[in-house]
Amino acid sequence: MSDLIHYRLEDGLALIGLARPPVNALSQPLRAAIIDACERAAADTRVQAIILHGEHGLFSAGADISEFGSDASFAEPDLPSMLVRLTEIHKPLVAAIGKLALGGGLELALACGYRVGEPSARVGLSEINLGLLPGAGGTQRLPRLIGAESALNLILSGAQINAERARMLGILDRIATSADQLLDEARAYAYELISCSAPARPAEAWPEPAEGLPDDFLTRYRAEHEPRWKSRLAPRLVLSALEAACLLPLEEGLARELALFKQAEASRQSKALRHVFFAEREAARIPGIEADIPLRKVDKVAVIGAGTMGGGIAMNFANAGIPVALLELKGEALDRGLMQIRKHYEISVKRGKMTTEQLEQRMDLLFGTLDYADLSDADLVIEAVFEKLEIKQQVFRTLDEVCKPGAILATNTSSLDVDVIAATVSRPQDVIGLHFFSPANVMRLLEVVRGKATAPDVLATTMKIAKRIGKLPVISGVCFGFIGNRMLEPYVREAHRLVLEGAAPAQVDGVLTDLDLNMGVFSMLDLAGIDVNFLIRDANRATTAHDESYCRLGEELYAMGRYGQKTGRGFYLYEGRNRKDDHEVVAMAERLSVELQVPRRPMDDQEILDRCLFVLINEGIQLLDEGIALRAGDIDLVWINGYGFPAHLGGPMHYAEQLGLDKVLAGIQRYRHALGEYGEMWFQPTPLLERLVAAGRTRIERI
Ligand code: 3H9
User: Which one of 3.40.50.970, 1.10.1040.50, 3.40.47.10, 1.20.970.10 gives the CATH number of domain 484-694?
Assistant: First the structure.
């Protein structure tokens, strides 16, 4: 028997333990081993019931994602037919779910007649996050178990639910008293089933999954939810599969589900989302640093600055149960900061996301102080003060005096040079950049900026703690803007220039949102604040030798006090949350075009899209070449999680690979020639792109 399975025969029971660490992904060899073991148990007259469990606790995280898009994904025994076969075994099968049953893992459990989970188990059909739908019976068996509406909500959310919720919905029959007891209680359950001659599968709870729902339920559901799906394919396929579950007998429904699954698997969107899945795992690996490097201990954190950013950062640690000292210079500012944090938590309580008790527990972890001496025992200190070099340097000098040896000293700068800040302390090896995105308690992305002197264990410890507080850490080298904002610069420039050439801000934004970006450039600037953009640009002016006339429009709006949403006027007019086009802005653009001698013409949507994206892609490839970004996938993660680039396009680097690198290069060269002096200056293909195309490469990597 395969070493992927542990098979034990115990007093009328066959225990089949799945043993493919770390997550029992259902690869072809594991599928073969499971079906062999189940057939053996089915044929053995001594076996009266079968228990399937994770040999090392965790049940299964589903189909092996690395098989998708290759022959292996449906190599025999394929998961759907294997699960049909399990349902035909004439003995009760009990799934003992430890830790997780996701996707195909839950489908495996659904093919068993009975399910028991440990108290902290989580289950879900997470395929939608990969641009897929459950393809091994999930869309057919789950509605028959818990009803069409609950099944649809679970499948479309891709969420993991806890054991208690799963029991209430009817997914779990029982919850074991503890994880340690899971297997014993699964055995006891199996003996009960044997003693009462229970059928191999109980009768379906919802033989008519749509029973009780209005006839037009699915049509109405689609109309209500479709706008949020934008151009995503998978939710639409889920709905078709659910329709089949409601209308067709099981066998036909399963066939329909399989066809829909294969359509999703072959789609570009799923390919992109699978790329994102693996890019997220890859981002945690630091080339040149062993995975088992000893880490520094981080039990106490301090945040300097109780403003919006500092407060948000502190909340992340309190949420993870880590005590945080929050330092301010004045009592009033400190009180205001702490009050703001409490308000955020109160909103969560009102929304039912947290109890009052949890709120108080978190507030208890936050300790306000006006005295730097209180930071002497902090293991990690994060500075989140005003974005001005001299101020930050002063803070670091003080930290150098008060912090204990080995404390990690982090700056939350978004644009300053981490190496210059590090140079102000006697221990630059302990300094690192942590660029949180706003709102810091919500946004998942964290750019971890590795300075020239940053010690390997400081970097590794920081990556680990970032995961502990639920962030997606991506490593960046030091440069102006790091990965995200450095790429934002040419993208914003191009949008401004297009407006000077004749596009309206709403046309540029419309083209970008049609691509499913969360927001267009001008809406984004209005939200972030035209003043903020101006001040950063202004502070950096001395270091950029470029002609910046392209952003004159933004500068004039700044001078007029039109800072965006917060002043009700920016590139657009705002009435509450409603945005309106402003013909005054168009008139300003027309005047500036004449002044700057930029010829105006009607702009074609395709040109807008090409130009905004080509400069973005070009800059990303340049960052990779410079070693600022370690991998193309890291760049994709930054833009998806920090700048609203649609995950189902895989990020700007993956998108470029899908377009074809040769086409991207040809496009950049085309605009270089078509746009005169401006094109000569700004549409210069980055050498790495040229090298990749010359070498016939289709993937973006350093060569
Ligand atoms: C499906 O089931 C389709 C079916 O309906 C139909 C089929 C016909 N496959 O994330 P981690 C690896 S679609 C392959 O770092 P965590 C992962 O790459 C599938 N590999 O740990 C990593 O490898 P490495 C539906 C997988 O504790 C290692 O395991 N299932 C898979 O933070 C540890 O992972 C899902 O969508 C997989 N399915 O999180 C679940 N899962 O060490 C996807 C994990 O080499 N998985 N790996 O980098 C997850 O959500 C998280 O990985 C999980 C663990 C929560 C399980």
Answer: 1.10.1040.50
The ranges assigned to domains in the chain are 5-265, 301-476, 484-694
Residues 6 or more apart whose CB falls under 8 angstroms from that of 41 comprise 7, 14, 16, 47, 50, 89, 91
Helix pair angle (687-694, 661-674), 10° resolution: 130
User: Which atom belonging to ligand 1 lies closest to the Cα atom of 66?
Assistant: 14
- CATH 3.40.50.720 assigned to 301-476: yes
User: Is the distance from CB of 413 to CB of 431 less than 8 angstroms?
Assistant: no
Q: Please tell me if the CB atom of residue 127 comes closer than 6 angstroms to any atom of ligand 1.
A: yes
Q: Tell me the per-residue pLDDT of 136-158, one tens digit each, with 9 for 90 and over.
A: 999 999 999 999 999 999 999 99
Handedness of CA 22, 25, 27, 29 (dihedral sign): positive
Q: Using a 6 Å cutoff on CB, does residue 280 contact ligand 1?
A: no
Candidate list 10, 76, 88, 107, residue with the active-site label? 107
What would the CATH number be for the domain defined by 5-265?
3.90.226.10
Cα 73 to ligand 1 centre (Å): 15
| 193, amino acid identity | L
pTM above 0.90, yes or no: yes
- In contact, 446 and 471? CB cutoff 8 Å: yes
* The predicted structure's pLDDT at residue 165: 98
Q: How far is the CA of 25 from the centre of ligand 1 (A)?
A: 7
